[in-house]
């Protein structure tokens, strides 16, 4: 089966190609992508070349906050509108759009579900939500299926983000200083995400719609440090630093380059739990990796890349 895919050279795109071997992927790009991957320029007939189209490309959240807000809407909203319009007029049967839980909320009180009212605060989240709303505003033809996926924090080989920060704490024998914070956060193994995408491709009985995607069990940052320590065969080093002192250091880090900033502290210690009940009910299968096994696989990939 031929599958068109934007963002094929990114973290998720590379893993989809590596983990889903039974398909012929057609990368949509302005330039040749690499060996063994066919590519097409973004033209009006690309959707007539395959049965499934996966839209991953977009502007990711800029932690340095130097991106013009208009760039988010150009990359995440306008491009999606253009592609979706072409899909509706084509012979392509299935459209999978990779949105984000950030299209709904930046802070979660309780457990995030598909029924929560969207309230994004960042331009990234707002641009993703605008793309979702455009897709939902169009009537889906009877012979087509459309899926909007909202993954939480994705991890796996070549992953970059806060998991790398924690890994550096543990691998360098540095004490994790936020032991007094008790949080629960949902993660998503790239293996489980690819499993979901594979099911959506092959199971025409799964209804079109919006689906949150996360691993089964939420983990705390302390849990992550413990798992990493076990994989690295190192003692678990956790400090119960007073929260007032931590907050003070984080504020200093907003102006002076030290290991912690207010935003980084929030990401490491906040609650952000996401329900995967809807997608699992639709698929009616268990995910291939448990939350803990997925983290362990990612940690091993960090070790192999050192």
Task: Give a verbal description of the structure.
The structure is a single chain. With 306 residues, this protein is of the alpha/beta class. It is 39% helix and 14% strand. It contains ten helices and eleven strands. The strands form three sheets. A seven-stranded parallel beta sheet has the order 3-2-1-4-5-7-10, sandwiched between helices. A two-stranded parallel ribbon has the order 6-11. Strand 4 (52-55), helix 2 and strand 5 form a beta-alpha-beta unit. Residues 35-39 have low confidence and may be disordered.
Q: What general outline do the C-alpha atoms trace? A: globular
Main β-sheet, spatial strand arrangement: 3-2-1-4-5-7-10
* Number of strand segments: 11
Radius of gyration: 20 Å
What key attributes describe this structure?
306 residues; alpha/beta; 7-stranded parallel β-sheet
Which helices and strands, and how do they pair?
Layout (H helix, E strand, L loop, with lengths): L1 E5 L4 H9 L4 E5 L9 E3 L11 E4 L13 H20 L5 E5 L12 E2 L10 H15 L7 E7 L1 E3 L6 H10 L15 E3 H13 L6 E5 L7 H12 L10 H11 L8 H8 L3 E2 L2 H7 L7 H15 L1
Parallel strand pairs: 1-2, 1-4, 2-3, 4-5, 5-7, 6-11, 7-10, 8-9
């Amino acid at each position: 089966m031929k599958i068109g895919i934007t963002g094929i050279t990114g973290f998720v795109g590379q893993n989809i190609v590596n983990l889903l071997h039974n398909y012929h992927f057609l990368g949509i790009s302005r330039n040749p992508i690499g060996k063994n991957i066919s590519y097409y320029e973004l033209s009006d007939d690309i959707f007539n070349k395959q049965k499934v189209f996966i839209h991953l490309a977009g502007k990711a959240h800029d932690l340095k906050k130097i991106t013009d807000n208009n760039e988010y809407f150009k990359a995440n909203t306008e491009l999606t509108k253009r592609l979706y319009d072409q899909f509706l007029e084509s012979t392509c049967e299935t459209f999978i759009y990779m949105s984000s839980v950030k299209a709904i909320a930046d802070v979660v009180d309780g457990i995030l579900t598909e029924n929560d009212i969207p309230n994004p605060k960042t331009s990234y989240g707002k641009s993703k939500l605008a793309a979702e709303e455009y897709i939902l505003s169009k009537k889906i033809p009877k012979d087509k299926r459309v899926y909007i996926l909202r993954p939480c924090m994705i991890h796996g080989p070549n992953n970059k983000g806060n998991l790398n920060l924690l890994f550096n704490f543990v691998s360098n024998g540095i004490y994790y200083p936020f032991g007094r914070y008790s949080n629960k956060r949902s993660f998503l193994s790239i293996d489980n995400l690819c499993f979901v995408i594979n099911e959506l491709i092959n199971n025409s009985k799964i209804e079109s719609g919006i689906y949150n995607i996360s691993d089964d069990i939420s983990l705390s940052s302390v849990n992550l440090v413990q798992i990493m320590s076990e994989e690295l065969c190192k003692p678990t080093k956790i400090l119960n630093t007073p929260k007032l002192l931590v907050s003070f250091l984080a504020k200093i880090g907003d102006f002076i380059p030290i290991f912690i900033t207010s935003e980084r502290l929030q990401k490491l210690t906040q609650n952000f739990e996401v329900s995967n009940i809807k997608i699992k009910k639709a698929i009616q299968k268990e995910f291939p990796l448990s939350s803990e096994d997925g983290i362990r696989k990612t940690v091993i990939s960090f070790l192999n890349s050192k």
